[in-house]
Amino acid sequence: MANPVIHFFGILFLLQTISAQTIAPAPAGPTNITKVLEKAGQFTTFIKLLKATQVADRINSQLNNSNQGLTIFAPTDNAFATLKSGTLNSISTQDQLQLVQFHILPTLYTMSQFQTASNPLHTQAGSSDDGQYPLNVTTSGNQVNVTTGVVDTTVSNTIYSDNQLAVYQVDQVLLPLALFGAPPTAAPAEAPAPSKPEKNVRAASDAPSGSSDSSTDASNAVAVNGYTVKGALVVAVITAIMMSVSWL
Ligand SMILES: *[C@@H]1O[C@H](CO)[C@@H](O)[C@H](O)[C@H]1NC(C)=O
Ligand SMILES: *[C@@H]1O[C@H](CO)[C@@H](O)[C@H](O)[C@H]1NC(C)=O
Ligand SMILES: *[C@@H]1O[C@H](CO)[C@@H](O)[C@H](O)[C@H]1NC(C)=O
Ligand SMILES: *[C@@H]1O[C@H](CO)[C@@H](O)[C@H](O)[C@H]1NC(C)=O
């Protein structure tokens, strides 16, 4: 009769060999937003802006450190080209940063999750999640429209999606109302006056960001990454151990 212990280690060895082959090529380091956009092509202006504002680094470190997920609306080069000339240069460096962050949602939305998203969506623009730079979506079937109050556009393509990050192509730059809204009649809402009496009037709907996280549970997106493979292996190892034990 075969020695069950030897049999057990035999199976383990076999599994390790399989796992080394299956897992090794999968995760090539954390996701790099610049690489994702470079690979997609036609996003050179957005990449430049992401780099100039150092948002690219921030995105990459967020992807590496948190599991909350991100959604990015990436305007094409053509979208930037059709802006009225001087649009980007008409705003300060600080506002350019807000503009870039306006294209980023601090939550993962799959295309179908937009259907149940409640407007306005929070963006990463603004000093905190206070709804100063809101963005609305409307959906119909697979179509997702985005509106800022200044610009209406449609998600025209999914460039990238995993269980942490979704990058969608938009064919217009999302110009936030706070920066490009009403013509300069009175004092623009954007410039914070030196002393404002009601400073604590913050959107009451704001959940404490960070703690409540309903985003990751819906991450059953495209899951051909190391974790799913590992999960399958754990099951396989447990099965193998149970089989070996039953031989004793
Ligand atoms: C991301 O990719 C870009 C270009 O492919 C590269 O220059 C940059 O160093 C990468 N960043 C990280 C954190 O790997
Ligand atoms: C990702 O995070 C880990 C752990 O915090 C860190 O050691 C590693 O250097 C980070 N990698 C990148 C590319 O930032
Ligand atoms: C999205 O926008 C297009 C073009 O403006 C429009 O025809 C369509 O009805 C919109 N769909 C939704 C769901 O708002
Ligand atoms: C966005 O949606 C909110 C809530 O429905 C609404 O109050 C607001 O007017 C909308 N803004 C735009 C620009 O569509």
TrEMBL record:
SUPFAM superfamilies (alphabetical): FAS1 domain
GO cellular component: plasma membrane; side of membrane
Coiled-coil blocks: none
Domain called FAS1: residue spans: 30-174
Pfam families documented for this protein: Fasciclin
Cell compartment(s), UniProt: Cell membrane
Record keyword Cell membrane present: yes
Cleaved signal peptide residues: 1-20
Low complexity bias: start-end ranges: 203-218
Region (Disordered): 186-218
GO annotation, biological process: plant-type secondary cell wall biogenesis
Topology within the bilayer: Lipid-anchor; GPI-anchor
Keywords assigned by UniProt, alphabetized: Cell membrane, Glycoprotein, GPI-anchor, Lipoprotein, Membrane, Proteoglycan, Signal
SMART domains: FAS1
Record family assignment: Belongs to the fasciclin-like AGP family.
Function as written in the Swiss-Prot or TrEMBL entry: May be a cell surface adhesion protein.
Name of the protein in its database record: FAS1 domain-containing protein
